[in-house]
Amino acid sequence: MRAGSKPVSAALKATRSTRGRAAAWPGAGAAPAATRPALTVRWARDEGDLRQAQALRYRVFVDELGARIAPPRGTPAGLDADLFDPFCEHLLVTAGEGGPAAAQAAPEVIGTYRVLTPDAARRAGGYYSETEFDLTRLRPLRPRLVELGRSCVHPDWRDGATILLLWGALADFMARNRLTTMIGCASVGMRDGGHGAADLWTRLAATHMAPIELRVRPRLPLPVEELVTGRTVEPPPLVAGYLRCGARLLGAPAWDPDFGTADLPLMLRLADLPGRYRRHFLGGGPG
């Protein structure tokens, strides 16, 4: 994902009015709990599972948020796919799997993460985050470093339960495979041209930065100095959740012009999980 030839600040001004509607997260529009099928969290087993995850990603990132994607040649319409997908493990939350509705209709994928393990990252030639950030300082962590990405939840299921299932399964996966550190890009919408993202970064940088020896540099930095207004901006619920779990910012945000977001590089080490989250998330996961 790269910008064109315009300077960043000029390109931001030119695209302010083109952003898609931001998704409510995690909340409005969720179906009443009494009418919902049971949820199951598990790993993708075959190409059909992966296609369902990619279709959900397309619905959220393209249809809902207005992202511009360039999938590999031959990708069916309506799927968000890239060159990293074949190397990743794909975590799914499905609705209606194994319950009474299973005999009437196939279960629906309503939440997903993708996970790139250290071995898979070597085969892929690196982490996706390296397309946005220089991760040189994280080199000592790579043998046990996992990258999380493409997190999304169907708009009818953003009530918190889905993301908690995903997080619990991710923590279990990390513990079982003796992996210690998660990284990823937390995206902040830029429908206001990036002012809110700049103000949020300024606020969080004062309280949630990783040690300097772990800092990374954006390849296409958000021009924070030009965009900051001094307003107090609350982090999106998902970002706030990461921070409550002990995540730290690794550096300044990158601008992703295709997804229309400011991407905050985050790192979470299992050792930094507060006790109550450790007890909750390490209690089990999918087989």
Largest sheet: 8 strands, mixed
Cα-based radius of gyration, to the nearest Å: 19 Å
In the CATH hierarchy, the architecture is 3-Layer(aba) Sandwich
- What portion of the residues fall into strands of 2 or more residues? 15-25%
- Poorly predicted sequence stretches spanning 5 or more consecutive residues: 1-29
Report the structural category.
alpha+beta
Please tally the β strands and state the result. Answer: 10
Distance between the termini: 34 Å
| Helical stretch tally | 8
CATH top level is Alpha Beta
**Could you name the CATH homologous superfamily?**
Gcn5-related N-acetyltransferase (GNAT)
Fraction of residues in helix: 25-40%
In the CATH scheme, what's the topology name?
Answer: Aminopeptidase
Shape descriptor reads: globular
Average pLDDT figure = 86
| Number of separate structural domains | 1
The H-and-E topology, N to C, reads as: HEHEEHEEHEHEHHEEEH
What does this structure look like?
The protein has helices spanning 8-15, 47-64, 118-124, 161-176, 195-205, 224-227, 237-244, 275-281; strands spanning 39-43, 89-95, 108-116, 133-134, 145-153, 181-189, 217-218, 248-249, 254-256, 261-269. The protein is an alpha+beta fold and 287 residues long. The chain has one domain (25-281): Gcn5-related N-acetyltransferase (GNAT) (Aminopeptidase), CATH 3.40.630.30. The strands form 2 sheets. Strands 1, 2, 3, 5, 6, 8, 9 and 10 form an 8-stranded mixed sheet that branches. A two-stranded antiparallel ribbon has the order 4-7. The longest helix has 18 residues, at 47-64.
